[in-house]
Every structure is written in structure tokens, then in C-alpha cells.
Amino acid sequence: MALTLTSLQQVAAFGFDAVIDVRAPSEFAEDHLPGAINLPVLDDAERAHVGTIYKQQSPFLARKVGAALVARNAARHLEGPLADMPGGWRPLVYCWRGGQRSGSFASILAQVGWRVELVEGGYKAWRKLVVDTVQEQPVAAPVVVLDGNTGSSKTEILNRLAGLGLQVIDLEGLANHRGSLFGDMPGGQPSQKAFEGRLAMALATLDPARPLVVEAESSRVGNLAIPKQLWSAMCAAPRVRIVAPLTARADYLARTYADVTVDRARLVEVIARLRALHPADTIATWHGLAESGEFRTLAGALMEDHYDPRYEKHRARFAPDREAVVEAASLAPEALDPLAARIAAAARDLFATR
């Protein structure tokens, strides 16, 4: 049987015991359906080998060689990851476009007796839904942007808003990056396609009757571009802006970027990337603060001389029609829940007066 993908909501509600991507590991690593596991019927080298035979010798020979490789790899999967699956196991299988790779593997699984289904159109069908959602369809819920200069605890507040009944999308979480020069996270960033897939699934669950809060970003989060529909909505959205003293923000950054400050060599290297933007003596001062462990002073200096002026310049380009300012004297852990409650109230007010 073949399953036709008609919506991302359908993907979110899959009732299969497993979603199996039989494409090569490099294809899977770039992007795949949510929750899928990779059981390749041809690995990267084998796929290239079969493709070369197809182009340089004959399609018939390529199919014969490919069939032998698929059978060999299928046997390995049956004797390995699938060895303990019960008789009632129900997998969903796909390849790039729902062709020979997934069809061959599904036939073998069906012969075992499992209730296997194929994705009609394969990964390409999924990707088409994603592109339509993030590039063509307007964001279903009204957007409110959570703004504030560097160190204003925006990401932490955003995640607290979800517990206060607001819809949120954490773009930095989806992109696995904190959105600054110091924002690299363990594991690196996903591919652009994978980021768009994660975002599309988040957009598909929105309730149009409730506001959606997203954090203020540039058009990119690290190396990943925010797709045009959400970016357009963010540029036009009202804003709730956190205003906190420089000292409070410096304390917050020193606390939350402990993973960066613990690696002095990395910190010095990142500061060095700013040489084209600041005088040599400024860079030398920042390097000295990093090497001596004066991280709060360093955070304050970086915000005052680098980040804050750039935030203000960027903010001026997207001056909203409506903005609520929420002042925060402290960003200590105990102050964040009350701050989140005030921001939630401000976001609801902006939504109510749209």
C-alpha cells in the first residue's frame, strides 16, 4: 500500500511503529521525515557505484548490481535492527521519490509478513509540503516578536512563555545556535532543509486564535536563513521589548555562556573575528579580559561597544507600529518567572488591540 502525504498535520499524526528512510546516509543526514530511522539499502559508495554503471555501461547491469546490493543490505537489517520486531509490526518506508529503493525493501518486509506501507512520492513529497508551508503559506497565527538587546534573557523567557499559555517557536532551538558570534552549540547546526522541516512542523500545529511569540533575530540564525513567510511576519509584527541594565545583562551572559568562557582558547579565537570591526587596542583589551577570566567585564564591554550599537541600528530598520516596553531591574534566576508573566500580559495586550 502507498500513503499519500497531504498535510504536515498528517505527518505529525503518523500511527506507524517505525518510519524507515532507506536512502543513503548522506541523504538522510541532510534531511528526513520527523522521527525516521535510517536503514539504507545502498550506502553512499554503493549508490555512486550503481549510478556510474547506469551512466557508463547499461541500466540493466545497474539494476542487477543494485538488486544484489539491496538484498544484501536488507538481510543485514533483518538480522540486525529488525531482528526482534513482532509479527504485528507496522513500518512506513520511503526513499527519495518512492521508487525502486523503497519498493524493493518494502517487498522484502511484506514477504516476512509485516504490514508495510510506502510514502507515495517519497522524500520529495515531504519536501514539497515543507517548502509550501515555509515559503508560500502565511503564518497561521498572529506574530508578536520578543525583542531586547543582547543578554536580555530573551530565549529563556520565550521558553517560559509556553508554560503561560502562549504559543512560541524557538528559532534558536530549531537552528541549534544562540544567534550570535558566540552562539555555536554542540553538534553544530542542522542543514537548511532540516531546519525548514522542523520549522514547518512547528508552524503546522499553530492555533490561529492565539498569538505566536518568536524571538527577535536577524534574517539568519547562525548560518541558517529564516524562511520568507515567517521573516515577513516578524518584520511586520508588534514587539515586546525587554529593557535591562547593562550590569544585569552582563551578569546574565556570564552565567548562561559558561560553556564558552570555560574554553579560553575558543573565546580568544571568537573575539579575534571582530578585528575588522574594531581598533586593535579594543581587541587587545577584550583578549586581556578573556585571558584573565574577567568575564562579566568582558560581556559588558562587548555589549556596550559591539552588540548594543548594532542592535539599535537593526531595530531602527524594523520600527514596529506597536511596541510594549517591559523593564527588568534584574535578570537573576528568581526574577525570570515574574518577568515572563509581565511579558505574557504585554503580548496578550498587543494581540487584543491589533
What does this structure look like?
The chain is of the alpha/beta class and 354 residues long. It has two domains: 2-132, Oxidized Rhodanese, domain 1; 138-352, Rossmann fold (3-Layer(aba) Sandwich). Helices cover 53% and strands 12% of the residues. The protein has helices at residues 8-12, 25-30, 44-56, 59-79, 100-112, 122-136, 154-161, 171-175, 192-204, 228-236, 246-256, 258-261, 264-272, 280-291, 295-317, 333-352; strands at residues 2-3, 18-21, 37-38, 91-94, 117-119, 143-148, 167-169, 212-215, 220-221, 224-225, 239-243, 323-327. The strands form three sheets. Strands 1-5-4-2-3 form a five-stranded parallel sheet. The chain has a five-stranded parallel sheet with strand order 7-8-6-11-12, with helices on both faces. β2 (18-21), α2 and β3 form a beta-alpha-beta unit. α11 packs across α15. The longest helix is centred in the C-terminal third of the chain and has 23 residues, at 295-317. It is globular. The mean pLDDT is 93.
The multimeric state of the shown protein is single chain
- Spatial sequence of strands, sheet with the most strands: 1-5-4-2-3
Number of domains: 2
Query: Which sequence of SSEs, written as H and E, runs from N to C?
Result: EHEHEHHEHEHEHEHHEEEHEHHHHHEH
Strand content: 5-15%
Radius of gyration: 25 Å
The averaged pLDDT comes out at: 93
- The CATH topology of the largest domain corresponds to Rossmann fold
- Count of helices? 16
Q: Which range best describes the helical content: under 10%, 10-25%, 25-40%, 40-55%, 55-70% or over 70%?
A: 40-55%
CATH classification, class level of the largest domain: Alpha Beta
Class per helix and strand makeup: alpha/beta
The counted number of beta strands is 12
